[in-house]
Every structure is written in structure tokens, then in C-alpha cells.
Amino acid sequence: MTEPTASETATAPRRTALSGEHAALGATFTDFGGWDMPLRYGSELSEHRAVREAAGLFDLSHMGEVWVEGPEAGTALNTALVGEFSGLAAGRAKYSLICEEDGGIVDDLIVYRETETRFLVVPNAGNAGTVAALLAERVAGLDAEVRDVSAETSLVAVQGPAAERILLDVVVPRQRETVSGLRSYAWATVTLADPAGDAIEVRLARTGYTGEDGFELFVPNEHAVPLWGLLRAAGAPHGMIPAGLAARDSLRLEAGMPLYGNELSREVTPFEAGLGRVVSFGKEECFAGREALEARRDAGPDSVLVGLSGSGRRAARAGYAVLAEGRTVGRVTSGLPSPTLGHPIAFAYVEPALAEPGTRVEVDLRGKAEPFEVVATPFTRRPAPASA
């Protein structure tokens, strides 16, 4: 066996601490954001349905983890990102964006506040280094430090209606109320234990990207394999199975959640993407992109992101043209047959005049115009909890 050349090593996808576990399960791998990640373990449809009906176990260790710490950490994030964080309570989380000076979206991310002076920023896989560098640049001169710990941190998610029951089976008894009482977009440090008594301390967040209830668990890399095994064993009686990126993509699209590189990019601002609500113009700090975003807010976007629902069997795919009265009026960014709904769904950017739900358009599916309708998103919603 020959050693890889320097150029091969430089371009080879990175592997998570759980790569061996995925290979042992027969996963099919794909390069995603520079990482070798499990696309599916068997049937992506079965994995999708498991998350909707029971639970799925995901390796999300390709995501970034960047700490912003110090007396002025809140002010630093207010300066670097479009959201307002100085008022975010400890133990809570907020979705936000980091933008260029021209208003283009560099990445979407989640910010978790651990203490008054300590925040965790979680960017997307391919953008983690860029985000860490921009944060360091933008907080210069403030009493705050930026530390990128992505390479030493693993992230595992349990998503689905059985997620809470699974976590309650493995958290130490004194912290069961912490798990059951954890609100959406909140997090806490808890201890999980297996029947042998081996304990794993995790940062447990009630966040996710599937539209279902669920948790994301942050641990140092050395605890990733034991954590994965503990959760697999606890979840099996509840119907939980490992799930790959293919199921994660169909789940997030049904839930109406944008994907960076598809719906979000440096070519669009929060106002085209329907995310103007996360931009805080009321804060004191002059954040990066503020002037450009104020101008775009006042002028209105040239195109807007909408959901499309098809009545046929053929799915619209990223890059396909959206048509109205024979002319191109937009472009599809994501699309697939919805496993839950049984018909095609898609995201697309279209002219603002065509964004009203109920508007009829067509999508050019390789030379054939197929009918679609603009619909409100999310495409699916999880059932409300049964009343007592």
C-alpha cells in the first residue's frame, strides 16, 4: 500500500471521529463541505421515515464550533453578526447570520450563550474556518477572544418524536427534569451513563434541522464513539436508527429550512431569503453589512425565496428554471419528492410579484414545463402534542 502524496492529502475529505462506526454500519459516504460523511446506511426513505415516526441518530461532527469569550463577548457578536446577543439569556440559543459588507450572506449559524461572558458559535462545515477568521477580525479591539475548537469537537444529534424518551433513558436520574424541561433553543450540561456506569458529560441543546423535536450533543472527540454506542443502544427499543445526509436533506426541506450553498449564499441578502426578521437594526453596534442591508430593506428585494408544490411525479431540481407565461421568472434552489407528502416540493427564488401562495407557475424539467404552485412553508409541521 502506497502512502498518499502531499497533493492527495491536501484535497482528501476530512473524517469525523465516528467514521469507523459509519463504515462498520455499511454507510455510503459522500464529500460534504470537505468532509467524508455518511450519505445513507441503507434506505434513505427508511431513515427519513424513522425520524418522522420515531427517531434518527446523526453524526454532525463536520459542523464548526467557535467560542467567543470575554467581558465584551456580547458586544463582539453584536458587531460581527446581524443579530442581537447581549440580551440573550445564559442557557439559550439564537439563529443568526454573518454577512459581508455588501449584505451577502457568508453563513447562517446558531449562537449559544453559556455564561455572561461565553458564547458558542456553530457555523456550517465548509464555512467554519471562514467564520472563525471573520469573527477574530471583527472583534479586534474589544475585550473578547475567539477560539476555533471545531477540530477537537464532535456533534451528534437525536431527532424525532421519541428523542426525549431516549435521552431520559440515558441521562443520570437527578437530571431527568433538566432534559424534559429543556425548551426549544435552550441548552444545558448533563451527564449520560450506560448500564455499566460509565459517564459522559455532554452539552445538550434542544435544537435541530429536521422539523422534529430533538437534541444535539456536543462532546470532545475522545467521547464521540462511546456516546454514539450509548445512544444507539438506548434508541433501538424506540425504533431509532442511524440516518445520513440524504435523509437530513429531505427532512430539512420538508421543514422549510434553508441550506447554505443552495438557498443561502454571498449572492443573496437576508431579505431575499425571507430572513429579514433576524437582522437587528435596533442595536447600538454598527455591524458588518448594516448600511447595505438598510438600503435593501427600504428598496425591497428583486427576488424572494418561496416554496413550490408540484402535482405530478417529477421533482424540480436545483438550477431548474421557474416559468410564468412562457418567460423565466426564477430559479429552483432545492427540490425532491417529499417522502411525507407524496408529491414534489422545492425552494425557488422568484420575482416578488409571484410570491403569493396560490400563484401558479411552471418549472422547466429538462425541456418539459411541469405545473407547480407557490405554497407557504414549512411544507410539513410536526403534530401538536396531545392534550392531557
TrEMBL record:
GO terms for biological process: glycine decarboxylation via glycine cleavage system. Keywords: Aminotransferase, Transferase. InterPro entries: GcvT, GcvT/YgfZ/DmdA, GcvT/YgfZ_C, GcvT_bac, GcvT_C, GCVT_N, TrmE/GcvT-like. Gene3D superfamilies: Aminomethyltransferase beta-barrel domains (2.40.30.110), Aminomethyltransferase fragment (4.10.1250.10), Probable tRNA modification gtpase trme, domain 1 (3.30.1360.120). Residues 21-283 form the GCVT N-terminal domain. Substrate binds at residue 216. It is an enzyme of class 2 (transferase). GO terms for molecular function: aminomethyltransferase activity; transaminase activity. It comes from the Bacteria. Residues 305-379 form the Aminomethyltransferase C-terminal domain. GO terms for cellular component: cytosol; glycine cleavage complex. Coiled coil: none annotated. Its EC number is 2.1.2.10. It holds the Pfam family GCV_T_C. SUPFAM superfamilies: Aminomethyltransferase beta-barrel domain, Folate-binding domain. The glycine cleavage system catalyzes the degradation of glycine. PANTHER family: AMINOMETHYLTRANSFERASE (PTHR43757), AMINOMETHYLTRANSFERASE, MITOCHONDRIAL (PTHR43757:SF2). Belongs to the GcvT family. The glycine cleavage system is composed of four proteins: P, T, L and H. This is Aminomethyltransferase. It comes from Leucobacter massiliensis. The gene is gcvT.
